[in-house]
Structures are given as structure tokens and as C-alpha cells.
Amino acid sequence: MTFPDFYLVRISRIETSASIGIHGFEQAARQALLVSVTLMLKPPPAGDTIAGVQDYDFVREGVLALVNARHFNLQETLCGEILDLCLRQPGVLGAVVQTNKPDVYPGVAEVACRMARMGPAVSGFPWWTLEL
Predict the structure, then answer these.
(1) pLDDT tens readout for residues 52-66
(2) DSSP 122
(3) Which residues contact 18 (CB under 8 A, 6 or more apart)?
(4) Domain extents for the chain?
(5) Most exposed of 42, 47, 78, 97 (fewest Cβ within 10 Å)?
(6) Number of DSSP helices (H) and strands (E) in the chain, helices first
(7) pLDDT tens, 73-103?
(8) Exposed, middle or buried: residue 60 (CB in 10 Å: 0-12, 13-18, 19+)?
């Protein structure tokens, strides 16, 4: 299987606090949340100019807006909504999203969820091989 050329932009560990979780202690107060997103993007045109490259400010702004908009029972739901946000952008071929909740359990570094969604041009791409 062949895939089109692409490049990756990674936005790592966006720090926020979220109303997320199904347990009572998670719903009692907002908790720390880290969000990382890797975008698979169509190659930019030649030249060292900003014209034609993806403006990725939408990732940080969109993640913060989603997290502040409501309570999420599941990390999977939040990851899915972030993937939807990413794939609505022109030039985005696919995305990988990971959420990390560092304060869920004593003695546990974090509870994480990683999900990916590939558009038709990269359907079947082994996304799990991408570093996040």
C-alpha cells in the first residue's frame, strides 16, 4: 500500500485542567490534564514562506475550548472530539491524540488514552508507529 507524502506537526502536552472522569473523586473537582496532538499534513509548497503551511494554533485553542465547554466522562470521548476538530481542517490527512491524567491514582504516573483517525488518503497507515 502506498501513501501520499506528508509531514508531521506535533503539539505536545498542552496543560489544562478538566472536568473529566466517571468516579466521584474525579467529578468533585477539575483535574490536571495534558493533551498531545500529532497532525499528518499535506506537504507545503516549496519555499521558506508561511503561505500554504498549516496554521496549527487551532489545536491549542480548540483543545482548551473543548475542555472548558463541558464535563467529559471518558478520555475516549474527549480524544474523539479533538480528532474531529483536527480532521475538519483543510490539509489535515490524519491525527493522533493522547490525553494524560497525571493525578488519578496514588503511585501511578498517569492514566492515558491514545486514539487516531486517518482520512481516506492515509487510511490503513500504521499510525501507532508515529511518535507522540
Answers:
(1) 778 889 999 999 999
(2) G
(3) 30, 31, 33, 67, 72, 78
(4) 7-125
(5) 47
(6) 3, 4
(7) 999 999 999 999 999 999 999 999 999 999 8
(8) middle
